[in-house]
Ethylmalonyl-CoA decarboxylase (Ureibacillus acetophenoni), 261 residues
Amino acid sequence: MNKGMDKLAYKIDYIDGILTFTIDREEKRNAVNDEVMNGFKEIVTTIYENKDVRFLIITGAGAKAFCSGGDLSEFHKLQTEKDAFGMLSKMGTILYEIATLPVPTIALINGTAVGGGCEIATACDFRLVAKDAKCGFIQGTLGITSGWGGGTYLLESGLKQDFALKMLVDSSTYDADKLYEIGWATNIFEGSKEVALENFIQHMRKIHPSVHHAYKEIKLRSWKEKNMFERVMEEIKLCAKLWESDEHIEAVNRFLNKSNK
Ligand SMILES: CC[C@@H](C(=O)O)C(=O)SCCNC(=O)CCNC(=O)[C@H](O)C(C)(C)COP(=O)(O)OP(=O)(O)OC[C@H]1O[C@@H](n2cnc3c(N)ncnc32)[C@H](O)[C@@H]1OP(=O)(O)O
């Protein structure tokens, strides 16, 4: 790192066909700011330009959090529905691009995944969840709904409809065992996340990439038929409307004031 320069908010590693994107803001529980969004955009471009990439892994730095959602201190400055829609639709579009990549995507959930963090994980094809991690669509506690399209991915994820909708309306966190029981977690792991990942992909690795691309195409064809992108954008509009509400503004102020004490 150059002297005087801030460290990047994310890391991108590439080893042997595996591209790993790590949100690197441990001190903010890996909250997504504008720089992280741009990093996500960068990996989408990298994957389309580099045919050697076979898997995308998304994870968070440290052991505490996978991702705590949008950076409340940064995005709280957005005051109008229009401004909120600008930020939400930027990330929502990037997340849709990630969700529609031709390679398998894996959320390696090393710790808490809440709010937008839970949306990022839900947009991935698979979720490997650390035994002590808690995850949830907690947006309701802030007086808003999921704002990056995660509600739509969840409702299309094949989870029993009542479980999926309950996760959204509950707005609370679930532990790893419960997440596995309802089908949101693909696997639960204890110990090293790298080992958990290796165990998970060891069979997939032996399969030719064209087979993976074909299966993703089948999945994504059905999404296109269901107008997923349009539905994601409608979801984002609903969140942008609630963004201006007193309830949202007060809830975020409460969180930020508590954190600053
Ligand atoms: C905007 C998009 C929207 C969507 O579309 O879904 C959302 O994502 S809304 C949801 C936003 N996320 C949250 O409401 C989660 C807020 N964070 C927490 O509830 C907790 O921090 C935690 C994730 C459960 C972790 O708790 P803990 O381990 O006890 O850590 P602290 O609470 O002490 O936090 C440490 C440090 O990190 C800062 N922090 C945490 N999350 C965020 C965040 N989302 N944005 C900005 N900053 C965040 C927190 O303020 C602390 O900072 P300092 O006080 O400076 O140490």
